[in-house]
Amino acid sequence: MPVDVSAVTPRARALAAAIRTVREESGISGRELSKRLGMSHGTISHWETGRRVPTPEDVASLLAVAGVTGEEKRRLVDLARHASEPNWLAVGIPGIPQQLAGVVECERAASTAIEWSPMVVPGLLQISEYARAASVAANLPANEIETRAMVRASRRELLTRRSPLRFHALIGEYALRDQIGTAEVMADQLVHLRDLTARENVTIQVVPSLVGWHPGLVGPFILYEFPDSPATVHFEHYSSGAFVVDVVDVQEYRQAIEAIGKLALSPEASAELIRSIAEEKGTRDE
């Protein structure tokens, strides 16, 4: 069955993940759900995998069967209503959970991801203790901290699965020298980065401080390349974020990656710098 072209937008990917989660949390099997909705099991399966986008009316019916009401129902129906729109801007904290779902689905579907992260270690490369320390510093509720830590751990599996994501991280030197959590946590995080450099599907390059202006100073972003759909750029701010698929905009980010890459250390020199800073952190904690 061909993929619906509207199903490859970031919103559509987030909707597919939400439908899958709603069904699993309701305890209803896919076959039982399709029976109650009067649809084929294949249709429900295509919704959950993102091969097809359900109408807002279909989503409302599904949510009614699953017992989802109130704000969550309104959010998912609205997501379905705008699923075919390519670019996606969410403003305010309520938009972040949807965007996180979109990010996770983009990561799962992508063949390659290139991330520029000037101030913190990229999410896919974070150890649980580092991610937890960042969440604690942000004063998040305890239950949300643990949920985010679990999501982070599951995302890391993308780098070690049978057909792993090819991930190229361009990291600002500041992200390695700043301290998130204790010095021991930072040392462990840096050792983890150094170990990851041995993986064929992971490339880590450090961009030194004091190299002057470059397009990366505007802010962090991630470029996802897919085998079956157009490339997507995602960037996130404190309480808002956006997915962009416009061809011209994506090309601008490709050029930004090229410019940043020219300033970065080689993978070998980056691994050596990471090792050196890890040793400094470890010594400082003794």
UniProtKB/TrEMBL annotation:
Domain of life: Bacteria
InterPro entries to which the protein is assigned, alphabetical: Cro/C1-type_HTH, DUF5753, Lambda_DNA-bd_dom_sf
Domain HTH cro/C1-type, residue spans: 19-73
Gene3D superfamilies, sorted: lambda repressor-like DNA-binding domains (1.10.260.40)
GO MF annotation, one: DNA binding
Name of this chain's protein: XRE family transcriptional regulator
